Amino acid sequence: MLTVYIAARDIGNYKDNTERLKEVLIESDIILAESFREATTLFKALNIKKEKDRLIEFSEHTKKSKDIDDIITKIINCKTVTLISDCGTPVLEDPGRLLLEYCYSHNIKVRPIAGVSSVTAAIMCLPFNFKEFYYAGLLPRDEREREKKLMYLKKLNVPIIILDTPYRLNKVLNAVKKVYSKEKEAALCLDITTDNEEIVIDSINNICTKYQDNKKREFVLVIS
């Protein structure tokens, strides 16, 4: 009987990967990966034999109809399949949900391989009140829609957690600075778990001024 593992991996530090992740990756008949490059780099770090025939791309470019059907055809007779993203925990901001929808509608067993998440890693290090919080995830790509979303988030009286692709750091910071009070407290967590890690708590104005010229860094922005 097929089991699909939804497996968390590191967010920058390969030492954070668990032995259980390594075991499941070795045992899997097929590994669904967001990108071949990141997957093979992970295999090398974990000393796992690189086998291209076990890898199938499962990314934002995977279409819901034909591509998904082709993937299902390949995995349906397998014993073990594992889904990994380029970093951190799958499904939050990648197409894993499409796979989960199929699994539950066809009674396929789904199991988590728990591990690192940039969201929880950021929460662990910040002195904000996280009894309640709002996970906003990726903001809209369109500038006008992005500002509209931030106007909505501004009305919520809880910490707001925003993460986006590294190359949109400047756009996110500029939009936040435009919508929120310049004195509003926020935290910017950059390249968490890596040698370049920075966690900065300051006013939105100071954070945006200091980091808006950073071209590409992994980040989580938390507005208190």
Automatic annotation (TrEMBL):
The keyword Manganese does not apply. It comes from the Bacteria. The keyword Methyltransferase applies. SUPFAM superfamilies: Tetrapyrrole methylase. Keywords: Cytoplasm, Methyltransferase, rRNA processing, S-adenosyl-L-methionine, Transferase. GO terms for biological process: methylation. Residues 5-205 form the Tetrapyrrole methylase domain. This is Tetrapyrrole methylase.
